[in-house]
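Onboarding guide, step 5: your first structure request.
Type a short instruction followed by the sequence, for example:

Predict the 3D structure of this protein.
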Amino acid sequence: MNHMLTLLQATTPVPRDIPLALPLPEWLLVVLLVVSFLAHIIFVNLMLGGSILTLWAQIKGMKDKEYDTLAYEIAKTITVNKSLAVVLGVAPLLSINVLYTVYFYSANALTGLMWILIIPLVTAAFLLTYLHKYAWHKLEHNKGLHISILALAVLIFLFIPLIFLTNINLMLFPEKWGTVKGFMDALVLPNVFPRYLHFLCASLAVTGLFLFWYLGRKRYPFETHFTTITRYDIRKRMYALALGVSLFQFVLGPLVLITLPAKGVRWNLVAVILCGATAALPAMYWMWKGITGKPEDIGRNFKKVVAAMTLTVLLMASGRHVYRSNALAPHKKLMAEKTKAFELLSAEARKHPAPEGAASGVTAARPVAPGAAVFQANCASCHKKEGRLVGPPVTEMVSIYQGNVPGLKKWIRQPGKKRADYPQMPGFPQLSEQELSILTDYILSVK
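The system replies with structure tokens like these:
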């Protein structure tokens, strides 16, 4: 295990953790994260799925007026579900910030501009959906423009989750932080697009079940709005949509699993996923019975379908956390060790501060305490004073860079690969200029 951690350190940036106590017990924060994320994602699904189905129905409504009416009825739900998605997104965002602070913010920093663009993109999409909803009758005779407004909102709604998913995916792979240069690099990492397709199918399934209920309620004045389409027709179509994409999930699910890097795949993850898939089977059977049975019996098992699918979604959300925990465990261990070592050296430095002006004249027998702390936190896993560890010894660095501080700083920031028998050294762009200066002073002071 220690050898594996050393190899991980050789190729992976390992920042120090933030040594602050959690505001709540960790297990409670995990529960809050899973449950609040489930509540949030359901309304995100309804917002996205509702927008897609509204667009489909409105395009179809250019030839059949009944479908234009259907589009209007679905569109009335989008802005409500959007507002709930935003409000319910605060809790999981805060939970993941607290539980995975270093990982979450590192991923956000690496995708930079795209992460910041989420705010204006969300704002634009919301304004477009309101414009589409409230200009419905005013643009009655300009359907091309009206549909274009919604189409643009749908495209933005489709892109925003891709940004989130790319960031959440990147935070799981700190070994990629040294090579990812922006959003596009993070986007093409394995597993991003299979997970994205999985999310899109879930959105359509959840929306299908929601509209089955919403348009099929006894108090919903269906016959007032529709004359040629029956309530049964709509409910059957929504059930068929939910069933079809749920069946397709049985193709996408294994694809998502096999494209996940193996470091987080354990039997506990496989067990949770299998339980989730098993819970979905009776729901699909009841939907099939409703579609193929008597029209008056189509909603007989709806509550059982919702219960089974809710259990499935809960288990799948738990599976995400299980994988995250498995994948980050070795790196979190390294980070904890680095943090502990840095705190010990920092405490020692405060007890025995170096004399002023002694930064560059001290020998290895009496190291500059701040520089030694930075070295211990960032370099000691791969380098020692004499002899090879993972990388070359410090004495060799001194022989190469003595009198060339800028060259040593540049190498630490953006190292290359000089020798075939040594692994690629990761860069350390996270070091401040002050940390870099005291680190190079310390390295070049070694005799």
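Each response can be followed by summary notes, for example: The two ends are 33 Å apart (CA to CA).
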